[in-house]
Design brief:
The protein is of the alpha+beta class. It contains 20 helices and 22 strands. The strands form five sheets. It has an eight-stranded antiparallel beta sheet. Strands 2-1-5-4 form a four-stranded mixed beta sheet. The N and C termini lie far apart (59 Å).
């Protein structure tokens, strides 16, 4: 990290600025849209829209259509291929972010520029100010399970990498992170290491070497934190040996990583004995994180949506340490900050920052009304508490009226800006007939089955699903990886429980009249979901960006193949 000193931020001032910004969010939104359209008025996309220089919301909505990534691909690839003309933005786009591809089975390129970097820092400063007010940090370091993808150049010479890689390589980001006490205990060589497994091992080792200084534990997603400490369970004795001898394990072969770690490692038998004693004294690894890092204040990362299933295991490792969900955004851009850090992840809400983009919301109140005509989007300050919406973003990086694909619920308002709860991805759905089950419905069903396994002292390691229409009628298939060997009776009951726990009226009705076949439970071998992770790492995804695909569609044939080739046992429901 850069050695340049930077003053810590004035958290009271940041909170004051946020309060002022959200007093009249409607006005700030109009000003933000005006700024976006003025800065990018020379872009081909906007010139072709017929706006003719107008910057008011009404003209914008009447001239510029709602779009998905597919609609913009041709423009984005022209930029990536080196077309120098202003296509989506007035100023040239310097970099491209690459999405993980775990949602749709295909990675997307999205524009990344200095304005998005500024948005990132503003979001981070805002949430840090509120977080630090409730959980003040002392001077120290953080244990961050972060990884950078290998950067590459597009055909036109633009830098390309994951959104997090674009951040990590930016000097503004590094300085900004110092200002909010977000300094990683691992050297850059570990973050930018060529092999994820070696980097993870070294992150754990650095955490132990600086154990007294660690103020919090972080990764982009909760999954990465759980994966890290599952790995710790396997390698802890080897880590102790490294510390005792002052010599790095031969499992780390990357020369740059070995060189960086050699500067930190010195023989320390006392520390090795202390860690060995602490690990040996734990009951089933409960409270591992505070035991290893006695001065840690909390665990931080995205813990909503598809990350919620990992919270039970994360709480087991965390003991009494608070879990705190990080801010709400995507590879395409940021939306909102967590300004209520005391709320548990399941109840986390995110206050929209009205100056980082222009936001619209498609009401999802009554599907029957939406069969023939989608409701008109409403503005940021026009949303209603308790209602669900699909979110639309307009950014400073050339995305105009872009459908993010997320469903959010308005939980309240902070001054005049809404506080949102992430509900699910709109397009991740199990559907055969008139049934519609979202990722959240699947999660709730799996949680119910998990309760039966918990009675046997077992847990669900991970899960996924697909719709099988090769049978007549079609049926749902749920894949579970389980931590041990449940009895046949328990697995049969799990299968029935999964089927009964989908309470969508269309599903229940279709099951009763046999328009949907019995749910199929496929129990997969241990390590199956690790193979899925390895598949995505092979495609260039970084582990801190990885999300297990919850509903595997036909486009995701390789993941389907991995799941179907690793089935240990199969059961069909008799619930209906």
């Amino acid at each position: 990290m850069l050695e340049k000193k930077m003053e810590g931020i004035n958290t009271d001032k940041v909170i004051e600025e946020f309060e002022a910004l959200t007093k009249d969010a409607g006005m700030v939104q109009r000003e933000t849209l005006k700024k976006i359209l003025e800065e990018n008025g020379s872009a081909e996309y906007l010139l072709n829209s017929g706006l003719n220089g107008r910057t008011d919301p009404e003209s914008f909505k009447s001239c510029v259509p709602l779009v998905t990534h597919k609609d913009l691909e041709a423009y984005i690839y022209r930029i990536a291929d080196g077309d120098p003309s202003p296509i989506l933005t007035g100023k040239p786009i310097p970099d491209m972010s690459l999405s993980s591809g775990t949602t749709q089975g295909r990675r997307k390129l999205v524009p990344f520029n200095d304005e998005l970097m500024e948005n990132t820092l503003q979001i981070y400063r805002t949430s840090f100010a509120f977080r630090n007010r409730e959980f003040p940090l002392e001077k120290g370091k953080s244990l961050q399970f972060v990884y950078s993808s290998k950067p590459w150049k597009t055909k036109g010479g633009l830098g390309a990498g994951t959104a997090t890689t674009n951040l990590f390589r930016n000097s503004k980001y590094k300085n900004g992170m110092k200002a909010i006490q977000f300094q990683c205990c691992s050297p850059d060589e570990v973050i930018f290491g060529p092999d994820f497994h070696q980097s993870l091992y070294c992150h754990l080792l650095c955490g132990l070497l600086f154990r007294e200084e660690i103020q919090f534990v972080f990764s982009t997603f909760a999954h990465s934190i759980v994966l890290a400490f599952r790995t710790f369970e396997q390698v802890w004795e080897e880590l102790c040996n490294d510390i005792r001898d002052g010599e790095l394990s031969s499992r780390v072969t990357a020369p740059s990583v070995r060189m960086a770690m050699s500067k930190l490692l010195k023989p320390s038998p006392e520390l090795a004995d202390l860690i060995y004693k602490k690990c040996s004294g734990l009951s089933n690894w409960y409270g591992l994180i505070p035991e290893l890092f006695p001065n840690a204040k909390y665990i931080y990362g995205i813990m909503t949506g598809s990350m919620e299933p990992y919270l039970k295991k994360l709480r087991h490792y965390a003991g009494e340490l608070p879990l705190m969900s990080a801010d709400y955004g995507s590879s395409e851009g940021w939306v909102a900050a967590n300004v209520n850090p005391k709320l548990p992840p399941e109840l986390a809400t995110f206050a929209v920052l009205p100056n980082i983009g222009y936001f619209e919301f498609i009401p999802l109140k009554n599907n029957a009304e939406c069969l023939y005509m989608e409701p008109k989007p409403v503005g940021l300050t026009e949303v209603k508490i308790g209602e669900d919406y699909e979110i639309i973003i307009t950014t400073f990086a050339g995305l105009y009226r872009y459908r993010l694909g997320d469903v959010v619920r308005v939980m309240g308002f902070h001054n005049s800006t809404p506080e949102l709860k992430f509900v699910c991805r709109r397009n991740l759905i199990l559907s055969i007939n008139i049934d519609k089950n979202t990722e959240k419905d699947l999660q709730l069903s799996v949680e119910e089955a998990g309760k039966l396994l918990a009675e046997e002292k077992l847990e669900i390691v991970d899960f996924s699903s697909l719709v099988d229409v090769s049978t007549d009628p079609g049926h749902y298939v749920i894949f579970l990886e389980i931590s041990g060997e449940p009895s046949e009776e328990v697995l049969r009951e799990c299968c029935n429980c999964l089927d009964r726990s989908f309470v969508d009226a269309g599903y229940v009705g279709s099951r009763k009249v046999k328009a949907i076949g019995p749910l199929e439970l496929r129990v997969v071998w241990r390590g199956t979901f690790q193979k899925i992770l390895e598949h995505y790492l092979g495609l260039g995804t970084v582990v801190s960006q990885f999300k297990t695909p919850r509903c595997v569609g036909p486009m995701n044939s390789k993941v389907q193949q991995i799941l179907c080739n690793n089935v240990a046992k199969t059961y069909f429901s008799t619930a209906f």
